[in-house]
Amino acid sequence: AQRVTQPEKLLSVFKGAPVELKCNYSYSGSPELFWYVQYSRQRLQLLLRHISRESIKGFTADLNKGETSFHLKKPFAQEEDSAMYYCALGGFSSGSARQLTFGSGTQLTVLP
Amino acid sequence: NAGVTQTPKFQVLKTGQSMTLQCAQDMNHNSMYWYRQDPGMGLRLIYYSASEGTTDKGEVPNGYNVSRLNKREFSLRLESAAPSQTSVYFCASSERFGGNQPQHFGDGTRLSIL
After folding, report:
1. Is B88 an interface residue toward A (CB < 8 Å)?
2. A contacts of B33 (beta carbons < 8 Å)
3. What percent of chain B has pLDDT over 70?
4. How far B32 CA sits from the closest chain A CA (Å)?
5. What is the pLDDT of residues B6-59, one digit of tens each?
6. Cα dihedral sign for A69, A70, A76, A77?
7. B42 and A86 in contact by Cβ < 8 A?
8. At B112, phi and psi to the nearest 5?
9. Is A91 left (phi over 0), alpha (psi -120 to 50) or beta?
């Protein structure tokens, strides 16, 4: 069974401090990992995906297959980063496409 | 650029009432999904439609039915609402089915069952 664990429900950091949102997964196939973000009063939107290997709004995430992790990092947090962040797992298993499984989310608050 | 549109945005029902949540996308996507979002539990997949004419159960399908009316529209029906179905419901779509496909979400429907 595929599973996504986000151990922190709430995370607070001060503006300018580094931030890391943790995501661990269990999956038997070839995983695809995503981070989605939901800003206050906005719809859920894709932040980044591991296959793109890009930095969005200063955030990066590296897939570590050995540790089965996909932590989201930003070196200097900004107040506008305050939002709910969801890690999501998809991919393929036994040759079949799998639907996304979402973690329970981490509410990030960046304090002034 | 509407993307995924959900109606209504809010609804209050009494236990036992029925209701249909509507979802439409204008991106010509093949796949559509219904999720529910509950505190501390993230998003859980209720039903999905990999392509027009097909629907399949997700993680929490009990108490719900869906209809893929056409390529654009995917509705979710509660036949006999229960308080446990109080939640925020999100519709999403993707170009194709598969866990490597980014999904586009609607604004959500906040549903309360009394």
Report:
1. no
2. 99
3. 99
4. 11
5. 999 999 999 999 999 999 999 999 999 999 999 878 899 999 999 999 999 988
6. negative
7. yes
8. -120, 130
9. left
Q: Which residue's structure tokens are 């002034």?
A: A112
Inter-residue contact A28 to A93 (CB < 8 Å): yes
Token pair in block for residue A58:
């200063």
SS3 content of chain A, % helix, strand, coil (to 5): 5, 55, 40
Residue A14 structure tokens: 């001060």
Neighbours of A42 (CB within 10 A): 11
Please report residues of B whose CB lies closer than 8 A to that of A105: 42
Contacts with A53 (C-beta within 8 Å, 6 or more apart), sequence order: none
Residue A50 confidence (pLDDT):
83
Q: Are B2 and B26 in contact (CB under 8 A)?
A: yes
Please classify residue B114 by burial: count the beta carbons closer than 10 Å to its beta carbon, then call 0-12 exposed, 13-18 middle and 19+ buried: exposed
Nearest to A43 among B43, B97, B107 (CB): B107
- The pair of structure tokens assigned to B83 is 């308080």
Look at the block and give the residue holding tokens 């519709």.
B91
Determine the length of chain B.
114
Question: Any idea what the Cα angle at residue B65 is, between residues B31 and B99, rounded to 5°?
Answer: 30
- The DSSP 8-state label assigned to residue A70 in this structure reads -
A45 contacts in B (CB within 8 Å)?
104-105
